[in-house]
Structures are given as C-alpha cells and as structure tokens.
TrEMBL record:
InterPro entries: Ferritin-like, Ferritin-like_SF, tRNA-Hydrxlase_MiaE. Signal peptide: none annotated. GO terms for biological process: tRNA modification. One of its GO terms (molecular function) is tRNA 2-(methylsulfanyl)-N(6)-isopentenyladenosine(37) hydroxylase activity. It holds the Pfam family MiaE. This is tRNA-(Ms[2]io[6]A)-hydroxylase. It comes from Flavobacterium aciduliphilum. Transmembrane segments: none annotated.
C-alpha cells in the first residue's frame, strides 16, 4: 500500500528495543516535528480552508501522540532527552525541489510529509510485530494506523491541489530516492535511523 521500495529489516526492532529510552525520546521528537510541519503548511497556505482544517487536525493529533509517548517515557522512569537531528529527514529536505510557484512549493511539502509518514508507518508496523514489549507493540500498532491516515491525507492533497506538477511522476521520484536513502539506515535506536 505504501509503495516503499525497501522494507525495513525486522532485526531493526531488536536494535530499537535494546534502548527503549532512546527510541521513545526520538519518537517523541518526531511527533513534535510532524506537528510543526502541519503548522508550517497552515502558515503558508492559510487561504485554503480545507487544507487548514485538515492540517489543524493532524497538528493536534501529532501533539497528542507526543504527549502519549512522553507519558510512556515518564511512566517508565526514563529521561526525555534532547532532540537529535534526524539525518534521514535532512536528506529528504535536500532532495526537495526548491523554487517555483507557491503551488509547486505546497505540492513538494505535501510529498515530503507523505514520504516521512509512509516510512514512519512502516517502521511502527515493524515495531508492533517484532518487539517483545507487549504494551509498546500494541501502542505502535495503533500509531501505525494513524500514520497511514496521515500519509494518505498528504498524498491526496498533493493530487488534489496540484496545478502543474505531475504528482504521480514526482511521487515515484520520491519513492526511488527514499528507497536508496533508507538502505543506509536501520542500524540505530531511532525511528528513521
């Protein structure tokens, strides 16, 4: 369904589970950044009522996820660490096309967001199916469903609002790039690492 070119090796879940404090802290920050992204889209496209309405819902939901992960961190006696730069996301930023019209920028931002949500969804599926911690396995199963909804929302808006961009062609370029990029990851206790 997601169209990802390379699946995560299930053994990555063992790496993640070996340091739950680290993966949960990283995940918490990912949720905060996802909320910020939705707010960024609102800020730059405030005239589009439908888009603003849906992005507001996503921003709220992402912050609810942030709170849920933060609550797990506290309940387990872990320390909520500082945010660490996400090299995977930074590489996606570099791949993003710059310039063009405001509409071009919107479509690129929506595809960027869809890509991150697709990979996060896939990673949460791997966690839900492969970690021994039953509470977290169930938690990641729930979040996987939410991420899938966000992925389709971003992708569908890109298709709906594109004025000149061939969204299917560009989405396939994103998928190809991400497939090559993700082959360098899956070795760290981070959502995209």
């Amino acid at each position: 369904m997601l169209g990802l070119k390379l699946k995560t090796d299930p053994r990555w879940a063992n790496i993640a589970e070996s340091n739950l404090e680290e993966i949960l802290t990283d995940h918490c920050w990912c949720e905060q950044k996802a909320a910020s992204n939705a707010l960024y889209i609102i800020t730059n496209n405030s005239e589009n009522e439908e888009l603003v309405t849906e992005m507001a819902k996503i921003a709220i939901e992402e912050m609810q996820h942030f709170q849920m992960v933060h609550d797990i961190i506290k309940a387990r006696g872990y320390e909520f660490g500082r945010e660490v730069k996400d090299d995977y996301v930074n590489q996606l930023v570099k791949f993003s096309k710059k310039g063009g019209t405001r509409n071009d920028a919107l479509i690129e931002r929506l595809l960027f967001a869809a890509m991150i949500e697709a990979r996060s969804c896939e990673r949460f599926k791997v966690l839900s199916e492969n970690i021994q911690d039953k509470e977290l396995a169930a938690f990641y199963r729930e979040l996987m469903i939410s991420e899938a909804h966000h992925y389709t929302t971003f992708l569908n808006f890109a298709r709906k609002f594109s004025e000149k961009v061939d969204v299917e062609k560009r989405w396939n370029e994103w998928l190809e790039f991400e497939g090559e990029l993700i082959s360098n990851y899956g070795k760290k206790e981070t959502v995209h690492g």
